[in-house]
Amino acid sequence: MRLKIDRNLCGTTGQCVLIAPMLFRRGSDGIAVVVQPVPPEDEMENAEEAILGCPVQAVADEDG
Fold it and tell me: Which ranges form a coiled coil (predicted)?
């Protein structure tokens, strides 16, 4: 898995940051930023939840 954010889709809701704060943070413009593109094993569930929890589908797995 390799996480990415589509900056054009990000609605700045911050759901990914709330779900997986070890993987995402808010940028100075409010748009989410991936902190760890390749999640460690203990964060995989949070990564998947962040992908599913994004209301505008801006969070995705580059690998699939």
Answer: none
Task: Count the alpha carbons within 13 Å of 49 in the hemisphere toward its beta carbon.
Answer: 14
What is the Rg, in whole angstroms, of the alpha carbon atoms belonging to the chain? 10
Cut 0.90: pTM above it: yes
Are 60 and 37 within 8 A, CB to CB? Answer: no
Q: Give the structural domain span for 53.
A: 3-61
Q: How many CB atoms lie within 10 A of CB 15?
A: 20
Check which CATH number belongs to the domain holding 19 and give it. Answer: 3.30.70.20
Give SS3 for 29. coil
Which pLDDT tens digit goes with each residue over 46-58? 999 999 999 999 9
